[in-house]
Design a protein that fits this description.
The protein has helices spanning 10-17, 58-65, 92-105; strands spanning 22-27, 33-38, 41-43, 48-54, 68-75, 78-89, 115-121, 124-128. The chain is of the alpha+beta class. Strands 1, 2, 3, 4, 5, 6, 7 and 8 form an 8-stranded antiparallel sheet that branches.
Length: 129
Amino acid sequence: MALDLSSLEPAVLEFLSERHLAVLVTQRADGSPHVVAVGFTYEPTTRVVRVITRAGSVKAANARRGGRAAVSQVDGPRWLTLEGPVRLATETDEVSRAVAAYAERYRMPAERDDRVVVEIAVDRILGRA
């Protein structure tokens, strides 16, 4: 079921802040799906999903090309899929913001000189939370 992006229920926002892993789906250059388990954060005010990663990863290469991507989080009968256009964020302030949000939801990640951020501008949320 598609959810109204302009007024997500508190249960949806709570589910998106709980410590769960998700599956990130991006498109390879040949159009096939690249599917990988990730930690992610969601910022409701900007409707942006962020996944921190290393610059040389497949997901970073796929995000660099643009297109669409999705993350899907499942916990028993609760599930949410957040979809939208994808981009690769590389600016220091963008990466710092994503690392801080990740640390709040999961734990502080190890230091990396090559960290980048896969960002999804969420325009569709499906699920049941």
